[in-house]
Amino acid sequence: MSLDTAPGCRDAPVLKERGQHEVFCGLTSIIWLHRKMQDAFFLVVGSRTCAHLLQSAAGVMIFAEPRFGTAILEETDLAGMADAHDELDREVAKLLARRPDIRQLFLVGSCPSEVIKLDLARAAERLTKVHAPHVRVLNYSGSGIETTFTQGEDTCLAAMVPVLPEADPADLVVVGALPDVVEDQLLGLIRDLGIENVRALPARRADEDFGIGPATRFILAQPFLGETASALARRGAEHLPAPFPFGERGTTAWLRVLADEFGVSPERFDEVTAAPRARAQKAVAKARETLADRSIFFFPDSQLEIPLARFLTTECGMEAMEVGTPYLHRGLVGPDLDLLEAGQISEGQDVDRQLDRCRAAQPDLTVCGLGLANPLEREGLTTKWAIELVFTPVHGYEQAGDLAELFARPLRRREVLAL
């Protein structure tokens, strides 16, 4: 099936699920954000449970110096017997005295801080006045209440947009936290096309900030950045909708949107992309031998489901029996929906109903969260952890084969165990 002839399902009926949720906490996004922003610190205002979650997710040993931490809310804070704002100011002062390398400090809301209505926006404004210009203090919510774990990145980046300067706007902004090597590859391809004034959000350091204005265009690298896209649009920037850069065809379509927008000639486009496209096609072909004609079922988890299903069906020959996603934002994933053929698109969660449909479908591969994977494996279904697709470099031409292998590997493992 080619990208040009896929029937698409942008206008197909969507099954709306509004039942029990099984989601990973939005604080988890700190694990990749703190690695990306090299002079930032993420201070979670939460409970000991929040601290244990971050330590477990990151695998950070006790003597390490990560760029995140937790300001623990004690019983006196939760009961209103202590002034949480005074205590927060004191902890921030101690942190900044110990870590003078910090240039951006994020106060991250959690379930406990939101339940007691701790106003972290006001705290960020107050602390910025105290510690500026050396440190910029921002706040966002990473609470796990009714959110997916990738939304932590969205609320973080959305919080950064209003403080970006007006002057010297970038011509193009690539939005979404990517591993440095992947970001370098994609920005390198864009610049090779002749698009010079291109920047990434988030920048790796605060002193790399750039302007945003009506002349700025932006393209998303991640499909879960709805709030960030809206914040950029409010600054006057123009969104360039495109399929997301997963696989050879997805990356080519993503780059072609930029080429068309900035007047890049077809000859220049082919010259820049021919070699990496060929490498990606060759790498995907190996995994396609395992994936072709196999069926897949996506539980809603990360909001990556629509573009990943598009990649697996159009490039790897799989059949998407159901593609579930926590939120369906057609303004962001519409170009991927145009290229996707799926048996069912569902939005939201009702775990019991979705489990029933998955068991009835008996797919060859099920993509789901950690909490569902082991029980489904016990029932004989082959699973893929959705969270691994967020932590692993999977964007662009050079990672296309690795992305396909992430889905092929569980199937090969099942075949070996069956021998």
UniProtKB/TrEMBL annotation:
UniProt record, GO biological process: light-independent bacteriochlorophyll biosynthetic process; photosynthesis, dark reaction
Pfam families: Oxidored_nitro
GO molecular function annotation: 4 iron, 4 sulfur cluster binding; ATP binding; metal ion binding; oxidoreductase activity, acting on iron-sulfur proteins as donors; oxidoreductase activity, acting on the CH-CH group of donors, iron-sulfur protein as acceptor
Coiled-coil region: none
Entry EC no(s): 1.3.7.7
Names of required cofactors: [4Fe-4S] cluster
Protein's job: Component of the dark-operative protochlorophyllide reductase (DPOR) that uses Mg-ATP and reduced ferredoxin to reduce ring D of protochlorophyllide (Pchlide) to form chlorophyllide a (Chlide). This reaction is light-independent. The NB-protein (BchN-BchB) is the catalytic component of the complex.
Protein name: Light-independent protochlorophyllide reductase subunit N
Provenance organism: Pontivivens ytuae
